[in-house]
């Protein structure tokens, strides 16, 4: 396959790191964007795979810094841009009656506004390559009513709306836009809570398969969406929650 670049935000740890790994394993060059500027932390990786990772430090809330990081990677690698994974995000919770509007706006900015802005920045790069794919990482909370989570639920619902609008508007440019909405996923950041204690007991009751998903589940799905054979898939939200959100 020809060399092509895919940007992944929040790529240093968690789900983003596993997505960066899955894309590199499929032969893509991966622009690993994160505040730390670190390469993905996923354990031991073959050198021919890690050689496809290219890290740059930036904050998705800093438009100029984000644009500069993307431009620097394009200049360094000199390969066409095939896609973007908007993975960076934030989760906080508190009673809605006590929720400061600044905190609500912060989650909307990080989880939704950054998705739109990063997509705007990558758009001309995808057009120059004849089109491409944008995958937004949402959440199954986008269709649920969850106590203490109005900011997170609203921000992830916005991700779904952004996905649908961009998919329609940018289809003429050869750009597909898809929302992947995970449920409870075990990562390096939450493993202890997911594998023991009250949360684990809750998940065993609520998830039909009795256990949470793995970051590799999300990564495998996301990487598969960059296949050329999926040209008619766009504008959809794909729920990856072990059927939890449809279980009664």
From TrEMBL:
One annotated GO biological process: fatty acid elongation
Stored InterPro entries: NAD(P)-bd_dom_sf, Sc_DH/Rdtase_CS, SDR_fam
GO MF annotation: an example: oxidoreductase activity, acting on the CH-OH group of donors, NAD or NADP as acceptor
Domain of life: Bacteria
Annotated family: Belongs to the short-chain dehydrogenases/reductases (SDR) family.
Protein name: Putative oxidoreductase, SDR family
């Amino acid at each position: 396959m020809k060399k092509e670049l895919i940007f992944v935000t929040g790529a240093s740890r968690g789900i983003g790191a596993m997505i960066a790994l899955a894309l590199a394993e499929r032969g893509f060059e991966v622009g690993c964007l994160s505040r730390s500027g670190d390469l993905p932390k996923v354990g031991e990786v073959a050198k021919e795979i890690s050689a496809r990772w290219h890290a740059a430090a930036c904050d998705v809330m800093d438009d100029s810094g984000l644009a500069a990081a993307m431009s620097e990677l394009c200049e360094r690698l000199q390969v066409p841009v095939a896609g973007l994974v908007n993975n960076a995000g934030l989760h906080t919770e508190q009673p809605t009656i006590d929720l400061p509007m600044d905190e609500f706006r912060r989650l909307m900015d990080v989880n939704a506004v950054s998705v739109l802005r990063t997509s705007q920045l990558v758009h001309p790069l995808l057009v120059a390559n004849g089109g491409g794919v944008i995958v937004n990482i949402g959440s199954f909370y986008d269709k649920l009513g969850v106590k203490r989570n109005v900011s997170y639920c609203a921000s992830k619902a916005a991700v779904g709306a952004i996905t649908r609008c961009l998919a329609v508007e940018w289809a003429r440019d050869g750009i597909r836009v898809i929302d992947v909405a995970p449920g409870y996923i075990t990562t390096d950041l939450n493993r202890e809570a997911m594998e023991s204690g009250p949360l684990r007991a809750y998940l065993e009751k609520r998830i039909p398969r009795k256990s949470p998903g793995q970051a590799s589940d999300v990564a495998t799905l996301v990487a598969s969406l960059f296949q050329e054979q999926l040209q008619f898939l766009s504008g959809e939200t794909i729920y990856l929650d072990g059927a939890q959100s449809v279980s009664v």
